[in-house]
Amino acid sequence: MAETVQHVEIRPAFRTIGTCEIEIPPPACIVIFGGFGDLTRRKLMPSLYRLHKQKLLPEHFFVFGADRVKVERDQYLETMRTAVKEGAPADYDEEGWADFASSLHYASFDFDIAETYVSNLKDKLVPLEGKYQTAGNRIFYLAIPPTAFETVVLNLDKAGLSKMRKSGYPYVVIEKPFGRDLESAKHLNRILQACFSEKQVFRIDHYTAKETVQNMLMFRFANAIFEPLWNRNYVDHVQVTVAETLGVEHRAAYYEEAGVIRDMFQSHLFQVLALTAMEPPVTFEADAVSDEKNKVFRSIRPFPLERLAEFVAIGQYGKGEIDGEPVPAYREEPGVSAASPIPTYAAMKIFVDNWRWTGVPFYLRSGKRLKRARQEVSIHFKAVPHLMFADMLENSIEPNTLIFRVHPDEGIGLTFQTKKPGTRFCLSPGPMVMNFSFGSAGLDAYEWVLLDCMLGDQMLFLREEAVEQTWRLLTPLIEKLEATTEAGIFPNYASGSEGPEEAKQLFEKSDCTWMPL
Ligand code: BG6
Questions:
Q1: From the CB of 67, is ligand 1 less than 6 Å away?
Q2: Distance set, CA 42 to CA 36, 94, 334 (Å)
Q3: Is 244 touching ligand 1 by the criterion CB < 6 Å?
């Protein structure tokens, strides 16, 4: 079918929610490959619905779900309605849903067959674009297993759907993990480059859009008082913690291939690490920020593979209790092999070898089925050089700590010592806490990335070099662990616990404060 795209005047428009001014994107359609899948139901549909409710979607807009599952539009809408009710319960209402659902469409689709991208996608998109007047702007969101990325990208190109046109852009959004090692990531980057330009590629990591994570950049570079302290002279060590209470849920097929290092470290934790350690960018623009993050990745010391136990600890959850409820071991989860060697927990000690950070360890830890869901970055400052009241105090005093709380209770806290009133001489750590309170403008991470992609803003997305640099560091580590981990060592932590003992020892042996969850 010939493409006749209607021209719609594109004007930036803003909407004020609370104290936030948010730009409304120009007209667009979002084609979701994996439109029936887990990510679409858990994150994308609830986020799109909430954006719709807050009137933050473009006026001219529709969603086109594409997936292998053969269902009619009615059934598709019913499934998505359930997903939205579960994912956005506070915002759901029948009227809002009916309005949103009128712009949802679906086609069952075999991603492997090139011709179907014309008959089942292009030919269906064109009339919808006419109807909704989306000005030819298309976002192809690949919410599919990483093994399918290449086929879809190549077939989009073959069908003539990848090139920029005068009348509209095609963008492609790639979910993590981007490849499964350095080679596959490079290969995928080459395929993308052959079909799209870098400006059209949005490699997503929703952690970069979390409010506290974004705030770290502002906090560091908009406040003069911390920058002089932000280095090896004053910082003893840094910790990044991402602890989940959730287990693998129904994602065993993916997780058994990935494990915690591919799932959480390669992108999420390394992005947070880069924002903590990077130099001030020359300008606040996507490329400048990305350049500085890449310098951090390039400065990270490779893991000494012969002495891994000094730098890395891994674990897998056994059965236990979460919030008083019994939960099964990882190996008992549906779809997981009974002798699975896949780690669900990792802790790492990392050194960033540059002028600012030489000698300062960065401790990263993340795991599933832990005692408490907690995500934070803590900067542990050095102890005072001489404690003149040492003789008078019963306990040693804790050095200052600056904590960026990503979840829960988003905010920033600084602990320092204060004297307690009384006749005995007594110091106690006092927290100074700033809670972020965004009211209704507290969009979640997926809402921000969806908005930014529609606005063509690549700040929160990863450039080609970032994914290759992180894989360069992690591929030898993962391969070594895969080759040497005896399945018999797992499970080594109970669900609902603090994680494996090996991780605690890794921290404590290095004189790093083990912060309980
Ligand atoms: C995803 C991982 O990228 O992030 C999941 O694949 C993990 O395993 C999730 O549960 C955590 O995201 P959030 O936003 O809930 O911290």
A1: no
A2: 10, 19, 19
A3: yes
Question: Which one is catalytic: 52, 105, 206, 268?
Answer: 268
Atom of ligand 1 nearest to the CA of 207: 14
User: How far is the C-alpha of 168 from the C-alpha of 422, rounded, in Å?
Assistant: 71
- Residue 30 in 3-state DSSP? strand
Instruction: Tell me what pLDDT residue 332 has.
Output: 97
* Alpha carbon distance, N-terminus to C-terminus of the chain: 58
Q: Which residue's CA is the nearest one to ligand 1's atom 4?
A: 264
Nearest-atom index, ligand 1, CA of 248: 8
* Least confident range of 153-157, 186-190, 503-507, 510-514: 510-514
Largest CA distance in the chain: 87
Average pLDDT, the chain: 92
Contact present, 2 and 96 (Cβ < 8 Å): no
Ligand 1 atom closest to the Cα of residue 210 is 14
268 is catalytic: yes
Residues forming beta bridges with residue 377, ordered by sequence position: 240, 404
Q: Is 263 close to ligand 1, i.e. is its CB under 6 Å away?
A: yes
H/E run at residue 294: helix 286-299
What does 93-149 look like in DSSP terms, one character per residue?
-HHHHHHHHTTEEEEE--TT-TTHIIIIIIHHHHHHHHHHT-TT-EEEEE-S-GGGH
| 405-422 exposure pattern, b = at least 16 Cβ within 10 A, e = fewer | bbeeebbbbbbbeeeeee
Task: Using alpha carbons, list the distances in angstroms from residue 405 to 82, 219, 269.
Answer: 31, 13, 14
Does 444 contact ligand 1 (Cβ within 6 A)? no
- pLDDT tens digits for range 133-174: 999 999 999 999 888 999 999 999 999 999 887 778 999 999
The residue whose C-alpha atom lies closest to atom 9 belonging to ligand 1 is 264
**For residue 341, cis peptide bond before it (omega within 30 degrees of 0):** no
- 254 Cα nearest atom in ligand 1: 6
Q: What is the pTM of this model?
A: 0.93
pLDDT band at 2 (very low <50, low <70, confident <90, very high): low
Q: Which of 175, 263, 270 to mutate to test the pocket of ligand 1 (most atoms within 8 A of CB)?
A: 263
* Residue 325: per-residue pLDDT: 96
Least confident of 244-258, 424-438, 478-492: 424-438
